[in-house]
Amino acid sequence: MATIRQVELEKSHLKQSCTELEGEVNMLRDKLSSVHSELIKTQENLEQFRSERDNEDSSRDRMKLELKNLRETHSVLAEESTQREAQIETLQQRISENQTKIRELSSLVSERDEIVEKLRQTRVLEKTSFVEPSLDRIRSVQLVEQLKDLRQQLMEYKATSMTSKTERAHLQELVNHLQGELAARVDELRQSKLEIDRMRRQHESDLETTQSSLHEKLQQMEDKWNDANTKVKQLEAELEVCKINGIPYLNSESKLEEHTALQTAVEALEREKKNLWNLLDETRNERNSLREQLNRLRESFEEEVEKHKKTKVALESKLDQKAEELAQLLQNHTSAVKSDGYSQDSCKANREPIEQAAIKLMSDSDEWTGSEELTRTWRVNASADWAMIQ
Prior knowledge:
Blueprint: H1 2-128, H2 133-245, H3 249-339, H4 344-369, H5 372-389
């Protein structure tokens, strides 16, 4: 009897423990449903994050397209810079040709002055000597013909000089146009650089916000995973106790099913956690790649700006040198004119083309270098020299 009572007492205790376990199982079911609802919310958040990631991919594609356009602009600018250097070399060659023609004109002027001097001496001799007039007339006719030839050559040279001036003006206009285009392209590159910096800052802020939200979601999922893992361990322990104490098979089977479902939910949460970690690593790698591309683009832009600065400085120095050479040539010509003794009208007629060419070249040099004081000093000196000649 005592054994039966003891067995009945143990049976009642087991029933009571089974009732408590059933209550705990019901509580676990409620918690599992709440975990399932939270998992659904997490999936919705993941879908939202995927849509945000798609938007970031589209913005990254736009940035890549802009980088490609900037590279094409850089290549076009390099080609235009090469063409401009070739045109500058052509312009310098034409300037040297004009200087050669000016030297030829100076030699022609000196020859004409010699002929005029000979005519003057002939007229003096005509008045003072007793040579036969026929010889003097022949010499005078020859000298007049030579003078006509020289005038014809001078007219041809003036026409050639006007043609060269027109070509030089056209080349100068082309150089100015290329300079304007170059300045516009440089401004466009600066604006593109500012826009890329702004997009980089915005993208970095978006990435930081996304990273912080991902960390929060991962932390929440880790907490849920730890809670679910603890519950699974508790259920496994209770199941072992039930098996040892002989709980009916139906209750053990239902708990086993609940344990399996909970284990499946825990594995799903763990997979979702791994996916989020992989997505976070991909986002970090993309951010580092964008930073490297931006740094390469910035270095290329700085190299292009430095190259254009060097080209401009070299061009300014060459133009200054050509202006000094032309001023020296004009000074030498005025010195030669001082040594001769021809009239004021012919002096003005001969100096005007050279003076206009020199002033045009100096004004072009002022446009490049901004040396207005040099131009004014040269003009004052030239005016003083011509005043002394007159």
